[in-house]
Predict the structure.
Amino acid sequence: MFNSSNPANGHFGLIIGENPGRKLKSKEKWYSADEGNATDDYGFGVLPAGCYYNKTPHFSGRDNIASFWSSSICDIDTTCAWGRSFYYNYTPVNRFTLDRSEGLSVRCVRDI
């Protein structure tokens, strides 16, 4: 679960505040049970593309999960990296590590 007071999360929680998943998710394309669970306050428009698990080869989560790679490699192992997930029925943003051979979405963001 996303914890905005955790230093590993950087400024993410300070910028977005409470319920970051709700504020960043697109209002459309999510599993129908998500009604009222997304506001897209910042126009980031997270869409539920799902993810690909290379080790078991299968695709999962279309319409109910959005998982993104971050640019940070794990502290203990260079074969894994940090990511963030958004779920249709959950307003926090989950932070996790995963083997870099798995398939997650990438969102390019530029500094202005």
In short: Helices lie at 12-16, 20-24. The chain has one domain: 7-99. Residues 12-16 form the longest helix (5 residues). The chain has a mean pLDDT of 80.
